[in-house]
């Protein structure tokens, strides 16, 4: 399963956005440019390609965009996606309306292409004081009653684990968040999702920091996190930016992290999902968000798929039975596995990663290969697979 942002807007798509995903030639928030050659609808941007033509971008609001993405999932063997639902869209407004459109289109496409789909609530945007997870409870009722997320009109492909629909809450235990996990109503939210007679009976998955078990490094030093984790059914540690192919034997550290995490989870009867990503890059975003700490382009390089396959194969070798891919369409941080262009725009003040000369669909193909190995439909190989001509 991969994460799906669905937050990209383009000038001319009738969205309420006041800024667009791709930005302009002096300010962009993305580091990977999508290959838009197969999209039904695209939009002209201020950027220019090497040949002098205008670069084009897609909009997540278009039904045809979402349909194409789920078609790719079926074509390449990606099992499905967690639809990211940020805290702000759980409250009334244009964000909620547009997010509902995208989620409705995704539910229809998931049914059409027989792909799994689930909701992941991201606590990003939750303030330090004055608000808690109550709006998420109200929003889940809305999703169940109005959008009918757990009972699509066509084939019901909502993700289930142990016979129950999976709902994820992401962003618990990160020290850079303004909220305190002790006073935002997490226990009440988990109890609602698991035990409410009408809207409950769900399998609850939590997104936590890599060092959740040790309560150090990228994690709050609060043992209350373990109290919350023990109330859940599945945990998924966020491992993006925590490992790099540029560090000697870092996959050994990644392997040991997974093995030790899984042992803790076995002792507490919790399922475990390691996280993988193709690489990482947020040079353009960091120039404006962190002007004192601008990151290089491709700070965690993809290496033509080598780094991605190292994580996938290491996770499976360590005993993982489920894997979370970060992310399907995340071009902001350069972690997208969908089709990314090896011929991105050229600009003086904005830089994009390329595909190391590889086909734009490489990471979709590798994900499908890993899925077949995970299901033991073909033997696991530690060496990156190569497609036959």
Topology:
Blueprint (H helix, E strand, L loop, with lengths): L1 E3 L38 E6 L5 E4 L5 H14 L3 E7 L7 H19 L3 E7 L11 H14 L12 E2 L2 E7 L15 H10 L7 E7 L14 H6 L4 E5 L11 H18 L3 E2 L2 E2 L6 H7 L16 H12 L6 E2 L36 H13 L15
Parallel strand pairs: 1-4, 4-5, 5-7, 7-8, 8-9, 9-10, 11-12
Antiparallel strand pairs: 2-3, 6-7
Helix pairs in contact: 1-2, 6-8, 8-9
Descriptive keywords:
14% strand, 389 residues, single chain, two-stranded antiparallel sheet, alpha/beta, eight-stranded mixed sheet, 29% helix, 12 strands
Strand count, sense and barrel status of the largest sheet are: 8 strands, mixed
The helicity comes to 25-40%
What structural category do the secondary elements indicate? Answer: alpha/beta
Approximately what portion of the residues adopt beta-strand conformation?
5-15%
Rg result: 20 Å
Helix count?
9
**Looking at the structure, what is the overall shape?**
globular
Average pLDDT, rounded to a whole number, is 96
Q: What is the succession of H and E elements?
A: EEEHEHEHEEHEHEHEEHHEH
Report the uncertain regions: none
Q: In angstroms, what separates the terminal alpha carbons?
A: 27 Å
The count of strands amounts to 12
Structure report:
It is built from nine helices and twelve strands. The protein is globular. With 389 residues, it is α/β, with parallel strands linked by helices. The strands form three sheets. Strands 1, 4, 5, 6, 7, 8, 9 and 10 form an eight-stranded mixed β-sheet that branches. The longest helix has 19 residues, at 94-112. Helix 6 (250-267) packs parallel to helix 8 (306-317).
